[in-house]
Write a structure and sequence with these properties.
The radius of gyration is 19 Å and the shape is globular. Helix content is 38%, strand content 27%. The protein has 6 helices and 6 strands.
Amino acid sequence: MGWDEDRAPVLPMFPLGTALLPGETLPLQVFEPRYLTMVDHCTATPDRMRFGVVLIARGHEVGGGDERTDVGTVARIVSGRPVAGGRVLLGCVGEARLRVDDWLPDDPYPRARVRPWPDEYSHPDAADVATLTDRVGELTDLAAAFARTRGMPPPRFPDWESLPGDAGARAFALAAALPLGAIDRLRVLSAPGPAERVPALADALADVVAALRFRLADPGGADRDDAARET
């Protein structure tokens, strides 16, 4: 089944603990019986290789009973192979944004009636790219300093001007490469168009920069955080 702009198709859905962004790659390890059935159905014919990905707002990925957001992304399966234990490894890529109009019964797997959500128009000069690029610069410098304290190589973040596409696509690509939490990724995904997406990403980066400044000011805090996660 392809992506039909003229009707609201019913898509298989895969709620996850993260928000998939258009253009982003998504590796998946599938092991739950309901999602193995979904993969079988999706890969049965070449025109059904798509499913929707939405963020779980509350609950868990395994077992159902979760609360799901109504904004997501169509994922296209580009590779797959079975592995030990009856699992399947999938390689997917995010395509277009979607909105969920109606959740259908999870029988035999989650499904929803969805519609495409293309970028809403905004003037090309309306996106405040300067603030965003300044924040990326701050993050790059701080992340390099933090990496030095840990004896690690500095991370590399893409440069705005080197990214392909329009401002909306560039913001998605940049967000995918940055250390953002699930809620911030959802905010970027849910911005109507580039004029809103770019400042949403800049605001998210301001929080990341502030957190990294705090960790640099308190070098022992990172070790305490690591120890807490291991216990």
